[in-house]
Design goal:
It is a single chain. This protein has about 300 residues and is an alpha+beta fold. It is built from three helices and ten strands; from the N terminus they run αααββββββββββ. The protein folds into two domains: about 150 residues, no CATH class; about 130 residues, Immunoglobulin-like. It has a four-stranded antiparallel β-sheet with strand order 2-1-3-8, with no helix packed on it. The chain has a four-stranded antiparallel β-sheet with strand order 7-4-9-10, with no helix packed on it. The longest helix has about 70 residues. The radius of gyration is 57 Å and the shape is rod-shaped. The N and C termini lie far apart (about 190 Å).
């Protein structure tokens, strides 16, 4: 009986020990769970802080891009790279090593942002200075353009004055119907059936600013029907005007008065009776004089 009592005591001791061990295990397990929970919460908070820092950096880049007058590729590239980091952190399983690496990367990104912002600010100031210089240049160019336009107008006006002043004019202009005698002598006539030629004479007035040299004046003789006698030639000027003329008369001009005469032979038959008109044009087709006469 004493042995049975001893066995019972041993069982109680063992049971007590097992209970202590079980309680200790339970306490340890609960402690581990709580530690893990705290660690998980701490890692989640750290992860959220990293994401918050990255979002802050991204927002600053967005602001810098908006304030930039022109799209800056470096700013856009840095902003897009941060967006990728944010996606990676949000989807990753948090652990101390990974979060530490991203935390270090955030520090690197902050320094990079500071350098880029300084660079952008410097470029912005340079662009502003260039824009100001460009605007100043445009103003000066506009002033110069106005001045040049004024000179062009003055030169054009002066050229017009010189052109008008250098134009040749007639101081005398006569037309005679003549008959050629057998001895070659020419006598004036008013009879159509006796007229062999028309003698056209004019005096070119002196002009000291006109250019000396060979000149050609055009003689246009219109019969009573308004047809050009011997009108086989025509000439046009730059303005599009055109003249059909009877004959071109050439002479050499030396800035002084010069008398010029030329003849228009009768057409295939005889000269008709009626009113005739003779026009003289210079080589630019400017009408210099008109004379009328009648053949009976």
């Amino acid at each position: 009986m004493t042995e049975t009592k001893s066995n019972n005591n041993s069982l109680k001791v063992i049971a007590g020990l097992l209970g202590v061990v079980l309680l200790g295990t339970l306490i340890y397990t609960v402690s581990l769970y709580q530690d893990k929970k705290k660690t998980t919460q701490a890692l989640t908070q750290e992860k959220d802080l990293v994401v918050e820092d990255l979002n802050s950096l991204k927002s600053e880049y967005d602001k810098a891009i908006l304030e930039s007058n022109a799209t800056n590729e470096e700013l856009v590239e840095a902003r897009d790279r941060i967006a990728k980091y944010i996606d990676s952190v949000q989807t990753m399983k948090a652990d101390i090593g990974t979060l530490s690496r991203y935390r270090r990367q955030v520090s690197v990104l902050k320094k990079e942002r500071e350098e880029l912002i300084k660079k952008v600010d410097s470029l912005t100031q340079s662009n502003a200075l260039i824009a100001m210089q460009r605007d100043s240049t445009y103003v000066e160019l506009e002033k110069q353009t106005v001045f040049n336009d004024s000179l062009v107008v003055q030169n054009t006006q002066l050229a017009d004055v010189v052109e008008r002043g250098s134009a040749l004019n007639l101081s005398a202009f006569t037309v005679d119907a003549v008959r050629v005698r057998n001895n070659g002598k020419m006598v004036s006539t008013t009879r159509a059936n006796r007229t062999d030629k028309l003698k056209i004479c004019f005096t070119v007035a002196d002009n000291v600013i006109a250019e000396a040299g060979d000149r050609e004046f055009l003689l246009e003789v219109l019969d009573p029907q308004g047809n050009v006698i011997s009108g086989g030639n025509s000439k046009s000027n730059e303005g599009g005007a055109s003249v059909t003329y009877s004959k071109g008369t050439f002479f050499y001009y030396e800035n002084g008065n010069i008398d010029v005469c030329d003849y228009i032979d009768k057409p295939g038959g005889e000269f008709q009776k009626g009113n005739y008109m003779v026009n003289v044009y210079d080589d630019g087709l400017k009408l210099l004089g008109t004379n009328k006469f009648t053949l009976k």
